[in-house]
Write a structure and sequence with these properties.
heterodimer; A: about 450 residues; alpha/beta; Rossmann fold; 3 domains; 6-stranded antiparallel sheet; 18 helices; B: about 180 residues; alpha+beta
Chain lengths: ~450, ~180
């Protein structure tokens, strides 16, 4: 067990202050998406899009091609806003949900793109024939060769991100394919301005469209690169590496730059190991102790190349962290009692969360782990729980050897935690376990808004 | 860690949606509306209705006053001829009507229409079109023949807009409609 110790120059260890809350409401997000959709559809309608429907086949297809093209762009814009990782949105919804929405928007964009292409070809095929339409739309018309390449890239990126393909690709492969999306989107922008009648003929609409795209580019550059440069300028160093259990290691990062940092227990960072062959890649790791000015502790399970490398990292290695991210923080608890459920290495975020609770929360911790050798932080956990009028229950063993079919069914949970319905439930662990706990807790009468899950990052 | 979450007021929840909707609707109403007339003013009276001759229908193009620079220069690189008139399948042996000049953002556009004995529109000639700028000339030289052809095909001013030539389309349809109004079928 390693607790971060203060750097010699620091007189006292104190927890890092909490990151500022986001004031963004669901209704704000709805208003922005609604207004953007209103403008996009309104622009299309104002330019005669609705009037053209059912007018003649060619006009109908042209009009539909315009509408689907505009919606395709809108989905793309919203998807890009999400990956700016703007704290305004992140502090409210969490990075994992933002990435999830980003994926859904990417899929929606590709569907609109497919429809846009189909309608465009159909519209041009009516006077010119299909072959000529395809020729025009892939090269003859201005900027269409570029746009064709861009569209292929966008479709390729989407396909490579579908779960089925994603699981077959290495992270590196997927990552580099995904990076080309920026080029794909940029390549198809010019045809909107030159060929899209909505923008070619209307200076005000064009100004608006170019304006929001430019604003997004500036935002993206600032948000992604600006923040990265700040992170690079404030590197941390590996201060301790401790073997905790079979395949489970704790790594403490410290440095003077932590003086300015803000973070909560339960959050995670994107960690970049500055060693040969790894510097370009980040991994999400959860805090496993309350973050202090003395250091950030991460508990990591070796599961892949990167996490293996991190568990064997040399002392003193430079590490760049971006974050903190994640909304499953002690903020979600007011004065209610708390149930914390940890699965495997999900114990990390649970420990850091627990540390910020007090006696009034009377925390109960359920720790599910498939083998005794993989249990970590047990003494620490018990000490923290006892100090807070709480208790720890462990459930060890492979699933098949358990006495009950579902260890997280409402019955089993209620037996262990009779006042479950009055508690806020925090769960961190593998996705299947998180789902099982959510199901069981709801069946036991816990309101949905009192169940908070953090995908365990390690 | 006791954070009493404050419930946002109703006003705070509704305000952004209302404000953004108002801005959005305001913005849309400022956009070009091809359905409206878009600042086209008709100047000059409808020309004399004269019986058609082969000479009048074959008149090609911009009147001397406005054709000083562009048509010659541009036609060498872009189009073999300026805007050519279009005649329908019927014999244009009826009236020839010179329309008013439709004045719009880029200049004036004047049309001359020919009809058959049965008063069916059978040909349109562009007398003047904006060509002071190369870009205007280029746009009009490619779009106006299309408008001519379509007008004659359907026999009315309800023609489709060519992308990139919306302003010309407005002036064209306004001018042609004025002729058709003055010369009921």
């Amino acid at each position: 067990m390693t607790r971060p110790t203060p750097a010699s120059s620091e007189s006292q260890v104190h927890p890092l202050p909490a990151p500022r809350d986001s004031r963004v409401l669901d209704t704000d997000v709805g208003a922005i998406i609604g207004a953007l959709t209103l403008v996009v559809v309104g622009l299309w309608s104002r330019h005669g899009g609705v009037a053209a429907l059912g007018n003649s086949a060619a006009k109908t297809y042209t009009s539909l091609a315009q509408l689907t093209g505009l919606l395709c762009s809108e989905a793309g814009l919203l998807g890009l806003i999400l990956i700016t990782r703007t704290p305004l949105v992140e502090r409210r919804y969490g990075l994992d949900r933002m990435f999830n929405w980003h994926r859904l928007l990417g899929e929606a964009m590709s569907v609109f793109l497919g429809l846009h292409i189909a309608f465009s070809v159909a519209a041009w095929a009516i006077p010119d024939g299909t072959m000529n339409a395809v020729k025009s739309l892939t090269g003859k018309e201005p900027y269409m060769a570029l746009t064709t390449v861009g569209s292929f890239i966008v479709l390729l990126v989407t396909i490579s991100s579908l779960k089925w393909f994603r699981n077959k690709l290495s992270y590196e492969m997927w990552y580099f394919v995904h990076l080309t999306a920026y080029f794909g989107l940029a390549a198809s922008f010019s045809h909107q301005i030159v060929l899209g009648t909505d923008f070619a003929d209307d200076a005000l609409a064009r100004g608006f469209w170019v304006g929001i795209h430019l604003a997004l580019v500036v935002w993206l550059i600032w948000s992604r690169w600006g923040r990265l440069f700040i992170a690079i300028a404030r590197p941390l160093r590996v201060a301790a590496v401790t073997h905790e259990a079979q395949g489970v290691t704790s790594v403490v990062l410290s440095g003077t730059h932590l003086r300015k940092a803000k973070a909560h227990g339960g959050q995670f960072y994107l960690v970049r190991q500055m060693v040969k062959g790894r510097w370009w890649q980040t991994n999400p790791f959860s805090l496993s102790a309350q973050p202090t000015n003395a250091g950030l502790r991460f508990t990591v399970k070796s599961r892949g190349e990167s996490s293996n490398a991190f568990t064997n990292i040399a002392l003193g290695t430079r590490v760049i962290v971006e974050g903190p991210y994640g909304v499953c923080t002690p903020d979600v608890v007011n004065s209610e009692k708390v149930l914390l459920v940890a699965g495997g290495v999900g114990i990390g975020p649970v420990v850091s969360f627990l540390e910020q609770l007090t006696t009034q929360h009377e925390p109960i911790i359920l720790y599910r782990v498939s083998s005794e050798h993989e249990m970590s932080h047990v003494e620490e956990l018990e000490a923290l729980a006892n100090a807070r009028n709480g208790s720890v229950h462990t459930l060890v063993g492979p699933r098949a050897t358990l006495k009950v079919a579902d260890p997280f069914s409402a019955d089993v949970l209620l037996k262990a935690v009779p006042d479950l319905a009055q508690r806020v439930v925090i769960v961190a662990g593998p996705e299947s376990m998180v789902k099982a706990v959510q199901r069981g807790a709801r069946a036991a009468g816990v309101p949905v808004e009192n169940i908070h899950a953090e995908r365990a990052w390690w | 860690m006791v954070v009493v979450s404050q419930k946002p007021t109703l006003g705070r929840q509704i305000f952004p949606a209302v404000a953004l909707t108002v801005v959005g609707v305001g913005f849309i109403s400022l956009l070009d509306n091809p359905g409206g007339n878009g600042g086209v003013a008709l100047e000059g009276a409808i020309g004399a209705v004269v019986p058609s001759t082969s000479e009048t229908t074959s008149t090609l193009a911009p009147s001397p006053a406005t054709s000083v620079i562009a048509p010659i220069e541009v036609s060498t690189t872009l189009a073999p001829s300026p805007v050519s008139p279009v005649e329908g399948s019927g014999v244009c042996d009826g009236d020839v009507v010179t329309g008013p000049t439709a004045v719009f953002k880029w200049g004036g556009l004047q049309l001359q229409a020919t009809f058959t004995k049965k008063n069916v529109l059978c040909g349109v000639t562009v007398l003047n079109y904006p060509n002071e700028k190369d870009k205007s000339a280029r746009i009009n030289q490619s779009a106006l023949p299309i408008y001519n052809r379509e007008a004659v095909e359907i026999g009315s001013a309800q023609i489709a807009v060519v992308s990139g030539a919306t302003d010309s389309w407005r002036a064209y349809t306004a001018g042609l409609q004025a002729i058709l109004d003055a010369h009921p079928a």
